[in-house]
Amino acid sequence: MNALSADELEARLRDIGARRYHRLHPFHKLLHGGQCTKGQVQAWALNRYYYQAMIPVKDASLIARCEDQSTRREWRSRLVDHDGEREGEGGIARWLKLTSGLGLERDYVVSLRGLLPATRFAVDAYVHFVREKSLIEAIASSLTELFSPGIISERIEGMLKSYDFVTPETLAYFSQRPPQAERDSRFALDYVKKYARTPETQHSVLRALEFKCDVLWAMLDALYHAYVAPGHIPPGAFVPRD
Amino acid sequence: MNALSADELEARLRDIGARRYHRLHPFHKLLHGGQCTKGQVQAWALNRYYYQAMIPVKDASLIARCEDQSTRREWRSRLVDHDGEREGEGGIARWLKLTSGLGLERDYVVSLRGLLPATRFAVDAYVHFVREKSLIEAIASSLTELFSPGIISERIEGMLKSYDFVTPETLAYFSQRPPQAERDSRFALDYVKKYARTPETQHSVLRALEFKCDVLWAMLDALYHAYVAPGHIPPGAFVPRD
Question: How far is B51 from chain A (nearest CA, A)?
Answer without folding.
Answer: 14
